[in-house]
Design brief:
Shape: elongated
Strand order of the largest sheet: 5-6-7-4-8
Distance between the termini: 30 Å
Length: about 180
Amino acid sequence: TFYIQTTNYSFYANKVVNACGIYASEIGSMLDVHIPIYPRKGQILVASRNETVGIRKVMEFGYLMSKFGGERQVSKEMEDYGIALVFEPTESQNFLIGSSREFNGYDKKVNSKVNRLIAQRAIHFYPKLKDMSLIRTYSGLRPFTEDHLPIVSETEVEGFYVAAGHEGDGIGLSS
């Protein structure tokens, strides 16, 4: 039986699922369980949709190569920051434009150099984007595993499970 204490509640549970994303390893360490998940930062640009550029999500093949490794024909800077095009129209008539991949601990500060590289890559595929208005930028942390596979399993502590390490594919892998 586990005694769980949060900022709002305390309770007992016979089974616990650690689905804490980038913090899964910290939770595991509370039980001396090593969970090899590390934060991997990514940035996104949000642009205003003045005219239709695309109606569905588009991802360049280089996106998968930046995630899993492989030789791409991009500048050293783009390779260093894992820049690859992901373009997604939103319901609110904006565009999400990305993305990047870098190991930088838990730092979520937006890097203007990375923003410039993302914009440059997007314009390479969609020249009309150079005339779009940038609304904002943001970054987030993805739970990375070295083999690029999520960890979904019981641990050596009976009743303690892990479901984390999806590195941005959580929704896609959920079904």
